[in-house]
Amino acid sequence: MTKYTIKPHISKAEHAEAMAKFAAFGEGPGEVVAHWAFADGSGGVNVIDTDDAEATLRNSLNYLPYLTTDFSMPVVTIDSAVPQIMDYLN
Fold first, then answer.
1. Per-residue pLDDT tens digits for 13-50
2. 4 and 69 in contact (C-beta within 8 Å)?
3. pTM over 0.85
4. In what order do the strands lie in the sheet with 2-6?
5. Under a CB-based contact definition with an 8 Å cutoff, are residues 71 and 65 in contact?
């Protein structure tokens, strides 16, 4: 899961540049599981299923001037999580 926030004080023109980059490069490698935008317009969260960290890095560099990204939250499906939780509880 990646949380991204729009860098403060970017201009409207820079925001348009970021959207053009998104149209050109998209969300990166892998399967997009979900993508949500924050209702306040400050950024969003996406979940992409990929094992290609190098390609993820390369794609994220396209947005470096415009966004701050946080890749620190790995996630699993609830179907994968429940057996692990139940194993722990037993």
1. 999 999 999 999 998 889 999 999 999 999 999 999 88
2. yes
3. no
4. 31-37, 43-49, 2-6, 67-70
5. no
